[in-house]
Amino acid sequence: MTTKAKASKAAETAKVEDVVADASGVANSAREFVKRSACTAKERAETIHEGSLKLNSNVEKAMTGFASGYASFLNNIADAAHANVEHALVTVEKVATAGSVSEALKIQADFVRENTTANFERVRDAANTSREMLVDGAATIRENAANVWPYGKKAA
Asked: Per residue in 32-47, pLDDT tens?
């Protein structure tokens, strides 16, 4: 081999070594990028997991509140029914002891007026209680749902 050929061969070898070194540098950069990306993804997955646990806990509290409110609502219905029956039976006793038809009609009219007023108040109280319970539960869920995915929020 001539000197020129040896020099050409050495130059080609140097070029190949440079290309391999460049490729190795790119591969190292790519590895580092993948490692950083995996680390970031892991941190975000942990944050999302923690947020979902908090959300589930708060949803459970809200649902417990709903169930408790529903049981209270059913108890109020039973109490109202019992009060209506008691009031009706007292009215029957009064009508039975009435001395005249006009007195019996007055007792009946008083019963209807008192019963209507009492039932109206019970329905209004039940509606207000239900509304408050639903609003509070929905607000709790809404406030805590945002904590599941904290990214994209603006700093305070």
From this structure: 888 888 999 999 888 8
Task: Concatenate the DSSP letters of all residues of the chain into one string.
Answer: --HHHHHHHHHHHHHHHHHHHHHHHHHHHHHHHHHHHHHHHHHHHHHHHHHHHHHHHHHHHHHHHHHHHHHHHHHHHHHHHHHHHHHHHHHHHHHHT-SSHHHHHHHHHHHHHHHHHHHHHHHHHHHHHHHHHHHHHHHHHHHHHTTT--TTPPP-
Instruction: Look at residue 151 and tell me if it is in a domain.
Output: no
Domain that holds residue 68: 3-145
pTM confidence score:
0.57
Q: Is residue 153 part of a domain?
A: no
The pair of structure tokens assigned to 13 is 């070898």
In the chain, the number of structural domains is 1
Give dist(CA 51, CA 57) in Å, integer: 10
Judge whether 96 lies within some domain. yes
Mean pLDDT score of the chain, rounded to an integer? 81
Please check whether residue 141 is in contact with residue 63, taking contact to mean a CB–CB distance below 8 angstroms. Answer: no
Which residues, given as ranges, of the chain have pLDDT below 50? 155-156
